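Hi support team,

I submitted a single chain yesterday and got back a structure, but I'm not sure I'm reading the token output correctly. Could someone confirm the output below corresponds to the sequence I sent? I've pasted both exactly as they appear in my results page.

Thanks,
R.
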Amino acid sequence: MKIYRSKNGDSKEKSISKIEELIVNDLSIKEKMDNLRNSIQVVKLSPNGENELIRILLEGFGAKIYFPRKGDNSERFDAEIDFGAYKSVVEIEIPSTEILDAPRNLLDDYAVQKCRKQENDKQVVPLVICWDLPNKRTDYWNVITDVTSILGIKIKTISILALALHYWTKTPLNLQNDDYYLEYSHCSMSNIDDMLRKANLSAKDYPGYFTPYK
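Hi R., thanks for writing in. Yes, this is the structure output for that exact sequence:
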């Protein structure tokens, strides 16, 4: 796929990556959703595919995203996002097979961010970005609930399709509220319903992406 971008009055031809094609295209919302949902192999087989996908989506909200260098033990998080008013430390789970480790890793990430880096001037939101949500019967939801009950830290969870839906519908993303605080007693992304309804879609069309399998 080719696109033409103008800079300083000069037209330049530039190829866009397969990852960008998943996000920036002329398809309908339903076609975009279905295409992205079925493209996990494209994401995994593209060099740094998951990072590029998340970067494109988050920069669409005006956020600045930083991925640490591989092997740097002082920065164990998968990504750090600066939303201006607050920051987020992120564990990326694509695919979601190792998602049970994410909350524990985020507690380390959060502690480093708050203590070693002394990030006391901004709220730090721990976030799991996953491909799809873990099964309702997994321990993931219990761990999230326990972390909140014991430590008072709310770990947020958002799927790639939810993040992309915000991007495509130009709906602001605010991780400071509880829209994406999912736990055992409430592990469905109910705030997504309005966005889906406007596109004549339902969360039931995408089982496991906005609400977990039973």
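A quick pointer for reading it: The helical segments are 18-23, 29-37, 40-45, 49-59, 102-116, 140-151, 160-169, 193-198. Let us know if anything else looks off.

Best,
Support desk
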